[in-house]
Design brief:
Length: 77
């Protein structure tokens, strides 16, 4: 919707500056196709960036992506 379309450039700007929460939120947008074209590989990339900074919600989402095979090869490791 319009709010997400307006938020995406702001999320992208701060995500590119290394802000974990913005990386996560942008990842959610890509995962859902909200305000951007759906791109699970990009969502996983962004979740990984945020998770590597200790952002717990991204760690959870990244784990779910691997468990369910969204944007990555499925790994129940």
């Amino acid at each position: 919707d319009q709010d997400h379309a307006e938020a995406v450039p702001l999320f992208r700007l701060s995500a590119n500056q290394g802000y974990a929460e913005s990386q996560h939120q942008l990842g959610v947008c890509y995962a859902k196709g909200t305000g951007v074209a759906k791109d699970l590989a990009e969502a996983v990339r962004l979740f990984r960036l945020a998770a590597n900074q200790g952002f717990a919600e991204s760690q959870h989402y990244l784990g779910r992506c691997y468990a369910d095979g969204y944007g990555v090869d499925q790994d129940h490791g």
